[in-house]
Amino acid sequence: MACGGEEGPRGISQSLPWDSVVARARGTTVQWRMWRGDPSINGFVDTWVAPRLERDYGITLRTIDGQGPEIINLLVVERDARAQGSADLVWINGETFNNLRKEKLLYGPWSDRLPAARFVDSLSPIVMRDFEQPTNGFESPWGRVQFTLIYDSVRVPSPPHTVDELGRWIRSHPGRFTHDQQFTGTTFLKAVLYAENGGAQNFQGGFNEERYSGGSERVWAWLDSLRPYFWRQGRTYPAGAADLHRLFANGEVDFTMSYNENEVITKVRQGVIPRTSRALILRDGSIANAHFVGIPFNAPNPAGAMVVANFLLSAAAQFEKLRPEVWADGTVLDVKKLPPRLEAGFGTIDTDPRGIPRDTLRRYETPEVAPEYTERLARDWKARIRANTK
Amino acid sequence: MSGGRRGASGLIVAIVVSSPVLAGIVYSILGALGVAGPGADGMSLRHFQVVLGDSATWRSILWTVWIALASTLAATILAMGAAAIFRAQQGVDRFARLVAIVPLAVPHVVAALCGVLILSQSGLLARLAFAASLQSSPADMPALTSDRYGIGLIIALVWKEFPFLALVAFALIAQRGVALEETARTLGAGALRTFRVATLPALWRGLLPAMIAVFTFVAGNYEVAVLLAPSSPLALPLLTMERYTDSSLAARGDAFVLVLLAIMVSLWGVIAHEWFASRVEVVE
Amino acid sequence: MNAMRSLPRLGLAALLVFATLLPLAFLVALSVSSDWFYPNLAPRRWTGANWDLLRRSGAVIFSSLRVSAALALATGAVSSISGLFAGRKIARLDGWRGRVAVACAFLPVAVPPLALSIGLQYSLLKMGLGGRFSGVLFAHVVPALGYTTLFFVGIFAVFDWLVEDEARSLGASPRDVIMRVTLPLLRRPLVEAFALGFLVSWAQVPLTLLIGQGLVRTLPLELMSYVSAGQDHLAATAGLVLTIPPLALLVVTALAVRRLGAVIA
Q1: Distance from the C63 Cα atom to the nearest Cα atom in chain B, whole angstroms
Q2: Rounded to whole angstroms, what are the CA distances from C178 to A156, C91, C167, C186?
């Protein structure tokens, strides 16, 4: 049984030329396990990607709903039960990738064999490393996003721009701010961690327990001093980003947040948040990360999966994905590497006024650090709010 | 009346009905011991120690039991009331009985969504209060959702569970109620006494299995809790899900311990049922 | 005297109707609107876009509707009949055997679906039923059978066994007793048990998700996606689609019961 080594269970040997991979994939079905919670993303995949895969490669794309933790659990149970693999491609990043690698649940390496890989922005630490872990060819980049706050320009005409200013704002507007318990909220905690400890560079170079203890102490201090001014006096928190958006839209709080800098555009278009919403970058640093696609160790159709991954990296697909009307998800390509005609196309995308100009985004971009920091922050935060209830 | 072949075949039937669950329990035990499942790293009692030693676990269980008890009792009392009041075959009573079971058709998650949109501080009720100038901002409205006592959660659950209990209660009254009441009335009892002595015990006996079902269902329901319950104390299904999807694989074994605890909570309900059943007299 | 009794009764009935139907009316309003935030009592925009979107992703919604219907009908049928026989056998047990049997019947109901899914996932995957319709059907029947068995234990707890005994004393075979005497008397509970089993399957989420592995796509799963994405209007629309068939089933049940007219003396 393959353990994610040089050859997968279906024997796509490293020496197989790309044309043969494409030929092998023709006429097959690729099952892609991805998060299906955003209609914009679903629309892009279902109505743009899938028909083109059918037309150009003869591949039938079938998407299955699934997020990181579920994917890991499913692959573990499938491995234990020696059941047939139910996914060829999975949409992952961060801790999910880390855990899958540790458990040897990923097929690979394979991503360097994709023809489109040579256009990837290989100088960007955001794209080449997943939470500081080198991808080593076990996952192929798909898109990149950056963390922002979202506010209502009508309710908050002059918003804060740093974590300290945010703290002052919270104090003068009690009950009007909170964060969620899931990934977005944890990203916010990381932003506070960097801000209160002199920047993300102090946490790079792998996980360090002392640095974590010292750093997190400052985070807890910041949170504790502001807790009485949080929504519901900080005694309860919305479960996920969607719940926080709802509170924001209905005027219970004045800020929401997203790890995607352009979510403000798509959410306004979907009618989830008011039209006057705007994105906001914290000058202490906006955490940037990329998201990837990987191939499980027991994928029935790795050839098809690789062809799909390659298509997702194509200039056309990356461009379409970047458009605000579609998804507004950042590209992982280095546009300067593209042929001039294609490169020019990328320049024509106007930034929506609700979003943030690209150079501002780049100026404040901050990479992710080792996944253990994220895990520990999330776990310790939860333990603290549970312990604090009387 | 019992014993022999009939006793054996009855037991066999019961075991068949429960066998998939027993298999699941065995797997959960293996997972809790670290032998199987996500995060399995060898036989150890570590997961038990971590989970049972955490006070958050016990607070979660107590809170979950409170919610389940409160909503089950409230829904049962309403169901018995509805069955007693709307008893006639025709007219208003029949219409009321039909309407009462409508929420059975509504999925729990939809009921929960309605709960959030109606009962939250910016929900329908709050907007009515705003329109009536009773409040000027969401914060003025008392918190019914994501609150410490789970009031909104209980309301939504009662809305969803009342129809099921009412359905059973209506069936009981229809099958048995008339006969019992005739008997009691011929013995000279008045309307209220008839109800208390003849109908009520029959209702209780017949409803107890359904009540236990509702109690355990509510205690284990995830979809409604995720929308309406607070982050602390955390309802047991939410805590279980949190552990099962924990970013560190090693912690996922904790979820199996929580699963076993959840089953034990339900088993206590079953034991309570048996205790009650052996004490309630049957009126023949 | 009749009028005095009927006014408070009418009032209570009205209260019941209002409390029951208000959330449903609210759902309908949500499904044909957008832009509905605090403090507005009415949405800013009435629009058919939600239903339109549902129609446009028609293939997905239709196929998940079909899958949900097939699963629910099969579950209802299997669990109602089996539940009747199981409940009857169990209700006749006395003493410790009766108590153990009832406790066993409780297990599929007592175990939270989430826990059941986590526990069953491994076994069903191993048997090759993972990600397949048959596997999900099996998973649905497990709790449904528990509910219908309990339901019938309750019915048989107040059942008049004399009727059966008399039939037997008149020379009817045990099979005849069941087919000719018991079943006709229990038409109404049978129909209701079918509806019960149907509903347990129709609204099921964790079991479908974990056993179906996302490959068996039912309507509640689509709904959960909308809710967790914060798409309240779409969720309301899908929620209504999800509500209508069981509602129709309940109405049909009620009408059918009336025609069958089950009354025991």
Answers
A1: 19
A2: 73, 15, 10, 10
Is C95 buried (19+), middle (13-18) or exposed (0-12) by CB count in 10 A? exposed
CB C131 within 8 A of CB C137: no
Q: Give chain C positions within 8 Å (CB) of B15.
A: 104
| Residues listed for chain A | 390
In whole angstroms, give the CA distance from residue A367 to residue C8.
68
Tell me which residue in B20, B171, B208 faces C120 most closely, judged by beta carbons.
B20
User: Which residue from A80, A251, A387 is facing B138, i.e. has the nearest CB?
Assistant: A251
Q: Per the omega criterion (within 30 degrees of 0), is the bond before B107 cis?
A: no
B-C contacts (CB, under 8 Å): 310
pTM for the whole structure: 0.85
Q: Give A239's contacts (C-beta < 8 A, 6+ positions apart).
A: A180, A181, A182, B226, B227, B231
CB distance A124 to A99 below 8 Å: no
Contact C123 B23 (CB under 8 A): yes
**Option in A39, A84, A240 nearest C231 (CB):** A39
Of residues A32, A8, A10, the one with CA closest to residue A108: A8
Residues 149-188 of B with CB under 8 A from C: 159, 167-168, 171-172, 174-176, 178-179
pLDDT tens-digit readout, C168-226: 888 888 888 888 888 888 888 898 899 889 988 998 888 998 888 888 989 888 888 88
pLDDT digits (tens, 9 = 90+) for C112-133: 888 888 778 888 888 888 889 9
Is residue B242 less than 8 Å (CB to CB) from chain A? Answer: yes
